[in-house]
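On clarity, I found the account of how folds are encoded harder to follow than it need be. What matters is that the chain and its backbone geometry are given together, residue for residue. I therefore recommend that a typical entry be quoted early in the introduction. An entry of this sort, consisting of the sequence and the corresponding backbone structure tokens, reads as follows:
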Amino acid sequence: MFKGILIDKDDSGYRATLREINDDQLPEGDVTVRVAYSTLNFKDGLAITGSSPVVRKFPMVPGIDLAGTVEVSGHPDYKVGDQVLLNGWGVGEGHWGGLAQKARLNGDWLIPLPKEFTAAQAMAIGTAGYTAMLCILALEHNGVTPEQGEVLVTGANGGVGSFAIALLSKLGYRVVTSTGRTTEHDYLKQLGASEIIDRATLSEPGKPLAKERWAAVIDSVGSHTLANACASTKANGTVAACGLAQGMDFPASVAPFILRGVTLAGINSVTQPKAKRVQAWSRLAKDLDFALLPLISHEIGLSEAIDAAPRLLAGQLRGRVVVDVNR
């Protein structure tokens, strides 16, 4: 038996409860992990509250991230006692995820936990920090350098935004952030933001082309914010799009892409090949200031996760929420 959050949907309705689960209820997989830490991401908040139909089968254990120790392995790359981590691959949506004390998974979804991180630190970074690094790798792939000018980070107070600011700043970029929370300006400055603008300047309908400003953009918001970011990106700049907090729509024109040669790079953090995942985590070990992790993240127990989910969706929680599944 082990503790976990289980989401059910039946004639009685949709509900998420913390309960004892039998080992024989675990789904198929060739690696069983004793989970140490997981996280509460935006997608997990949607799953727990039922606010959006992200869960594709029931019952379901949410949690798109996990870090822990291999307990049973039929996979050639892993043996009992190995420290591993996972981001994405549909866990918490179509396959039981990390918000439980055990997980049984496809070993191909795992990577070794880099020696530079503890399990708790890896989850403080989680999918958010990993996605931010994938965005930066995309900018670098397209030749973006600090000398080319300012980089805009939208959704600055969220997990992806927080890590994007910290990473870009350490790499020498001048970072401008957009946020609707004036109370968080000191936090964003501590992460490395040089300037903070009101998100309202980007979130309303805008022109197909605006004055060129950004050498690059990391956007986790989508909708009008993404459209306006593209419209004001400099010629041959790159916009990395990785989120849809404002919406899935993209009310833009092709003008920035044709007339200015702007590149819109879509960032898929869910099903990256192993080599790319290992590369991103290796760069996080090198380029992230670990001293910022306590500022960006805070820890809760598994018993607190269900109550925290609606607050996360309401934007009332800053940065990353790390979940100690053993308390």
